[in-house]
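User: What would this chain look like folded?
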Amino acid sequence: MYKKIDKVRAHREKLKQLLFNIPTEGRKVVKTITIEMSNQKFWPGYGNVSIDSDGPDGFTHWGSHQKNPMEYALNSEQYKSGEYQLIIK
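Assistant: Here's the prediction, encoded as C-alpha cells.
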C-alpha cells in the first residue's frame, strides 16, 4: 500500500516541478474579472467574483463569494485600473 502512495506522490511532485519550470517569457498578458451570479434560492443577490492575471510574471488568482458582486467588482482597484477585462456569466 505504501509503495502505491509513494508512486502517486512521485508523479505529483514531477508534475509540480514541470509546471513551475514552464517558460513564461513572451507570454501574452491576460487580466480578467469574472462575475458569476449564484442561482441558489438561499443566497439571492450573491455571486462569485474571480480576479485573474496571467503573463510573463506568472499567474495570480483571487476569488470570493460576495453580496452584490457587480458592485464589488466595479469598485475594485483592479477594475478601476482599466487593465482588466470584465466578464459576466
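The longest strand covers residues 46-55. If you want, I can go into more detail on any region.
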